[in-house]
Amino acid sequence: MSKAQQSYPVQIEQLLLQGGRVLDPQVNLDKVTDVHIMNGKIKKIGKVDAKSFKGQIVDCQDKLIIPGLVDMHVHLREPGREDKETIETGCRAAMAGGFTAVCCMPNTQPPIDSRSHVEFIKERSEGFLVDVHPIAAVTKGLQGEELTEMGDMTDGGAVGFSDDGWPVKQASLLRRALEYAKMFGHPIIDHCEELSLSEDGVMHEGFVSTGLGMKGIPSISEEITVARDLLVAEYTGGPLHIAHVSTKGSVRLIREAKKRGVSVTAETCPHYLVLTDEAVRSFNTNMKMKPPLRTDEDQQALIEALQDGTIDVIASDHAPHAIEEKETEYNTAAFGIIGLETTLGIVMTHLIAKGLITLEEMIQKMAVNPRKILRLAECSIQVNASANLTVLDPNIDWTIDKTTFYSKSRNTPFDGWPMKGGCLGVLNKGQLFLNC
Ligand SMILES: [Zn+2]
Fold first, then answer.
1. Residues 32 and 177 grouped into a single domain
2. Catalytically annotated residue among 164, 190, 312, 317
3. What CATH number does residue 397 fall under?
4. Is 234 part of any domain?
5. What pLDDT is recorded for position 5?
């Protein structure tokens, strides 16, 4: 994936994706064939005579054509911190990373906590290839005191609610938010952290933090809030989505709750699946995020949770930061890393190629389930459906190079990592983007 020359999406009337493996478990589709797209819609799935075809042809031999991927947890920083990322640069990073949709978190400046803020995001992203779905704040100003106008924001286009960056601090507010969420059908997405337990910790509390003499964030800081949230979700029947699950204990709690029929879904992020707190020994501040990198045992539990369906979604938690916020001491560096341009490669290289999850499972966790959870329009590969597609090259060898990112930020722990498999291009709204 050399991106020395950055490319742009182009509007295409007639497009032929030729000879790819077309794969969509939602409609039991798995065959090597052509896909003819006309004015943004799938016209035909089947052999098309290329010689008489009038339009653009993309050779998809040995490539995979799958439903467009969604990253349901990203921070786009606009409004307020356009130096780190804008809606436009975030969308460009998303396209390059294989996503046709992203959901942006409300902790902007000001936060997305009213209908006009939600509409601002929708207007700013109108016409972009990537669909941008705002997640609105649960509480006004993310202050944890007063609920926002959730119904009004749903009408404006919000697809979920979160105080991400912070937990929903009070159980009583969470209760009311879940009651409303039940009416509107869009989930409460909680960043589970008991602040009195994480305090000013900077990494996972355990053997490594003790050795390094660094302040720890214990697993129970996450788990105690997961447990609370699950109880409130069970009591209210409202839809709860647990963001960025990082511990074995959280997995156990969510698995048990799902068995009891609690309306809960969960996500984890690529970094928890391929890095552990051992990586903090490097003092590379790109190993610092919330929740923190945990242990081997936690990582194993997360992988099992992906396999057995306890964890429904893989999301990046793309969190752009300015260089000066990261190029500082570990203790003072900002929490968070970017992920839009690395998630797919990490999943293909470290999960699929190693046989830990299948391609079909990846499609479930990165295309199908996020849309279901957020009640987005279904996206499947069928004649007459909108052509919302990601084209993967499962065989390409490439190296993550942060200097070539479309994102405005560079805070990745994966710079220099060798990858096998990546995104050839994406298609949505009649626009085609090809990674050059
Ligand atoms: Zn969070």
1. no
2. 317
3. 2.30.40.10
4. yes
5. 63
Residue 137 CA to ligand 1 centre (angstroms): 13
Q: State the CATH number of the domain containing residue 220.
A: 3.20.20.140
Give me ligand 1 centre to Cα 203, in Å.
15
With a threshold of 0.90, does the pTM exceed it? Answer: yes
- Asked if residue 23 and residue 169 are part of one domain, the reply reads no
Report the distance separating Cα 341 and Cα 92, nearest Å: 10
Model confidence pLDDT, tens digit, residues 132-153: 999 999 999 999 999 999 999 9
CA of 415 to the centre of ligand 1 (A): 22
In tens, the pLDDT along 317-343 reads 999 999 999 999 999 999 999 999 999
Centre of ligand 1 to C-alpha 105, Å, is 9
CA-nearest of 419, 424, 431, 435 to 347 is 419
Considering the domain boundaries, does residue 97 fall inside one?
yes
How many domains in the chain? 2
Catalytic residue status for 298: no
Domain that holds residue 391: 10-65+383-434
216 and 151 assigned to the same domain: yes
Tokens of 99: 């996503």
